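Hi L.,

You mentioned the student needs an example of a multi-chain input paired with its predicted structure. This one should do, with 599 residues in total across all chains.
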Amino acid sequence: MKHTIKELEDIASQVRRDIVRMVHGCQSGHPGGSLGCADFFTALYFEVLNYNKDFNMDGVGEDLFFLSNGHISPVWYSTLAHAGFFDKKELATFRKLDSRLQGHPTTHEGLPGIRIASGSLGQGMSVAIGAALTKRLNGDKSYVFTLHGDGELQEGQNWEAAMFAPFHELDTLICTVDYNGQQIDGPTKKVLNLDSLQAKFEAFGWHVINTDGNDMQAIVEGLHYAKTLTGKGKPILNLMSTQMGAGVDYMMGSHKWHGTAPNDEQLATALAQLPETLGDY
Amino acid sequence: MKKYTYTEKKDTRSGFGAGLHEAGKKNENVVALCADLVGSLKMDAFIKDFPERFTQVGIAEANMIGIAAGMTIGGKIPFTGTFANFSTGRVYDQIRQSVAYSNKNVKICASHAGLTLGEDGATHQILEDIGLMKMLPGMVVINPCDYNQTKAATLAIAEYEGPVYLRFGRPVIPVFTDPDQKFEIGKAWMVNEGTDVTIIATGHMVWKAIEAGEKLAELGIDAEIINIHTIKPLDDEAILKSVKKTGCVVTCEEHNKFGGLGESVARLLTTELPTPQEFVATNDTFGESGTPDQLMSKYGLDAVNIVEAVQKVIGRKK
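Structure written out for the whole complex:
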């Protein structure tokens, strides 16, 4: 462990503060899924991912990460800033004119840490497969990680990719699904039931694991465990249970905070629940 | 009229296959992907010599475009191959976000474009792909005119850094360009110098424009014929220089006149040099089943249609 669990939890608390402040600052964006994945991003960047802070697009010899559900950009931007990719002051520019922190992540403005645009859903797994194929051709043994929304799996392209990766034995690929059961129009069970994602991915030939995405110890251990499963001929699918809005009581467990910004009073309520640990931007 | 002859007919897709094979020999970073149309795209030689650098994706074009975008990360130069319809309309959003907006070095190579796909009919005969692709910021759009030019274009795009759409076709047509030509992206080719009208043609329509030029010469009309193989970026300079001399223009393409080469030329001319223009192109229609020759005739894409358009546009000159 590079950090204690307490240290990681403190980082995640600051990331959560950043998320609600960023979304409040521009009165738009997606706090729910961002908050739910704050622990995952912290664990990934501060404990699991092998990367170079001096960003290089090709990432040869580095682990790569692709965010497929690009609307949870606030959690990624905050994590990248605290991980040292750019100054955290830039978080104040989120979704504003002339910013590198676009509403959805993009390479277009040259923000370090981002290798592909995402936002239009369902494309990230294919891109990650491509990056993993290139690593294989280059003899580069490092890992390729992804994150996907659960509702996002309603996009058909995911299943093209899900069929491809096991067939080609892409066993350096570790995909995580943010299994929060919510999407814009309501619970996934009501909008278009995903049913058993475990059974679906296993039927496609993936090695599926289950983790608790809002328990720092569990998610760190889960991602390390996922790495031990690589190199065995199967891609890894991490079904990660989270609560949308985790860390802010009034946002938790409801799709209503998928894409809504808090007002001043709601912001104060949220910040009172999230200790400032690394200093606000 | 300069005399053009040919000794053989070949398909432009075979020019792509030969170019891809040669690009693969020149640069080990060139990789190829296909969505279950290896034979149609003439990828066999590449696959035989570089099996580890070829990825068969299956009938999953969206996945193929995403994989190609991802493969650029780490330095590969992916060439995707499928029919033009499945290379563009089917995967427009994947190209838009993962390739164009992300500025990835992907070469989208599209065969069986246009009516000359023939008997399969309108589901497969895309006549809108040039428009779809040219609207994407940063996308280079190329539609070469014969086997040799397609091969040269394939080699040229391998050396160009950035997203490219390369459009070619199914039928065998005359091979009339130089086998050793140097292909310059964005640079028009002067097919024939003339003074009375500028005929601007792309793809399979270039040979038809040459046939039309010969008929026009018999009628005493001296046509300048320009091959625009690169629809974007357009060679503004070559077009303006020619039109200044001739005072009228006919554009020829195997594509809908809505959104094609003709509209790109019209956009240039209305802002820089308003000029009478006629369009030889399909007119807001789908195709249908038939032989390539029957279809080109029925939809007004023959040399005779170019001759008629020239006579009409010359009559519109002040």
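You could point out the following to them. Chain B touches chain A at residues 31, 52-53, 55, 57-58, 60, 62-76, 78, 93-94, 96-98, 101-104 (CB under 8 Å). The mean pLDDT of chain B is 98.

Best wishes,
N.
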